[in-house]
Design a protein that fits this description.
With 330 residues, the chain is an alpha+beta fold. The protein has three domains: 146 residues, no CATH class; 40 residues; 104 residues, PH-domain like, CATH 2.30.29. The chain is 51% helix and 21% strand. It has a five-stranded mixed beta sheet, covered by helices on one side. It has a four-stranded antiparallel beta sheet with strand order 3-4-5-6, with helices on one face. β4 and β5 form a beta hairpin.
Length: 330
C-alpha cells in the first residue's frame, strides 16, 4: 500500500476527489432555490421549438450532480500519477476544472431557462448563463494549468541530467566539444519561393483545388529543406534537414580533417541535399560552411551560417577526430 501511495500526488488526489463533489453539492443546493419557479416535469433536452424530453425535478438534479462529479473525477484523476510528465499533469488539471465547471454551467443554464415558465415545452436554455459560465470555465482552466504546482519527484529525466552534470564535472572540455545550431537560407529565398509557387498555387486552386494544394505542398517541402539542424560533438557530425530528417552522419572515427571555408553552392551541385561526384553537401546558401574530409577520400560540406560558427564546428570535429583516433585522448 505504501508503494502505491508513493506513485500518487496526494495533494492533487485530494483536490481531484473533493472539488467535483463540492461542485455537485453546490449545484444541488442552488437548484432548490429555483424549485418553486420551475415547471413539473422539467425539460432535460431541447430543440428549436423548446423542450423535447422531460424528467422530474429530483431526477434532473440528482442526475446532473452525478454527472458533474463523474466527469470531474474522470478528468482530474489523470493529473494524479507521478509517473506522468509534469506538463501533461498540469494540462489535465486545467482540463478537469474546465470540464466540471462547463457541466455545471450547462445544467444551470437549463434550469434558469425554465424559471418562471409554466410549461417546460416552451422553455429554452438560458444563453447568458451558458455564455458567461463557459467563458469562466475556459479562463479558470487556463489559470489552473499555470497555477498548479505538481509535487517534486525524482524522475528518469533527473537521473539523465545528473549523469550529464557528473560527466561535465569530470571532463570540463565536454561542453566545449558540443554544439547545436540551426542554419537556414536567406529571407529573400523564401520570398522567391512564395512568389514563384505560392501565388500560382492560389490561382490554380480557383480552377483545380487539389492541384493548387499539391503545388503549395511541394513548395512547402522545398522550403523546409532550406532549414537544417546541425549537431557536432565527440560522436561526430549529424545534419537534419527540416530539423527532423537526418541526411548526413559522419562518425568521429571517419573524419580526417575539418575546415571552415567560404563555398559556393554551385560547386557542390546547388542548394539542399546534394551528392556531387566525390562529395555530399547540405547547403542552404552560399557562404560560410564547414568542409569535412573523410578518411575514405570523400568530402562533406554543410552551411554554418556565420564564419564564427563554421570555425567552432570545424574545431569540434577536429578534436573529436583526434580523440577517436587516439583512444579517447585529445
Amino acid at each position: 500500500m505504501g508503494t502505491f501511495r508513493e506513485t500518487l500526488d496526494l495533494r492533487a488526489l485530494r483536490f481531484a476527489l473533493i472539488f467535483p463533489m463540492l461542485l455537485a453539492i453546490g449545484f444541488a443546493f442552488c437548484s432548490q432555490m429555483l424549485r418553486n419557479n420551475l415547471p413539473d416535469p422539467v425539460a432535460v433536452m431541447w430543440n428549436a421549438d423548446g423542450g423535447s424530453s422531460f424528467a422530474p425535478f429530483g431526477a434532473y438534479v440528482a442526475g446532473g450532480s452525478g454527472l458533474i462529479a463523474l466527469f470531474g473525477w474522470v478528468t482530474f484523476i489523470q493529473a494524479v500519477p507521478l509517473a506522468r510528465p509534469v506538463v501533461m499533469r498540469r494540462i489535465m488539471m486545467g482540463i478537469g476544472l474546465m470540464v466540471s465547471l462547463f457541466m455545471t454551467t450547462v445544467l444551470a443554464a437549463g434550469l434558469v431557462g425554465q424559471s418562471g415558465v409554466g410549461n417546460a415545452r416552451l422553455s429554452h436554455v438560458d444563453p447568458i448563463v451558458l455564455a458567461m459560465g463557459s467563458g469562466a470555465a475556459l479562463s479558470l482552466g487556463v489559470v489552473m494549468m499555470f497555477a498548479f504546482k505538481p509535487d517534486p519527484r525524482w524522475t528518469a529525466e533527473d537521473d539523465a541530467a545528473l549523469q550529464g552534470e557528473l560527466r561535465l564535472l569530470a571532463d570540463p572540455d565536454l561542453a566545449r566539444d558540443s554544439l547545436r545550431m540551426w542554419v537556414h537560407a536567406r529571407s529573400s529565398v523564401f520570398v522567391m519561393i512564395i512568389v514563384s509557387a505560392g501565388f500560382p498555387a492560389a490561382l490554380i486552386a480557383v480552377v483545380i483545388p487539389w492541384l493548387g494544394a499539391l503545388v503549395a505542398a511541394a513548395a512547402l517541402v522545398a522550403a523546409s529543406f532550406l532549414f537544417a539542424r546541425v549537431r557536432a560533438d565527440r560522436d561526430g557530425l549529424q545534419v537534419f534537414a527540416a530539423g527532423v530528417l537526418r541526411v548526413l552522419r559522419v562518425p568521429a572515427g571517419e573524419i580526417s580533417a575539418a575546415a571552415a571555408a567560404d563555398v559556393k553552392a554551385a560547386d557542390f551541385g546547388g542548394w539542399g541535399l546534394r551528392h556531387h561526384e566525390d562529395s555530399t553537401a547540405m547547403l542552404v546558401s552560399s557562404g560560410p560552411a564547414v568542409v569535412v574530409n573523410e578518411r575514405n577520400g570523400r568530402r562533406v560540406a554543410l552551411s554554418a551560417g556565420t564564419q564564427d560558427a563554421a570555425d567552432k564546428v570545424a574545431g569540434i570535429l577536429n578534436r573529436a577526430a583526434s580523440r577517436a583516433q587516439h583512444g579517447g585522448q585529445a
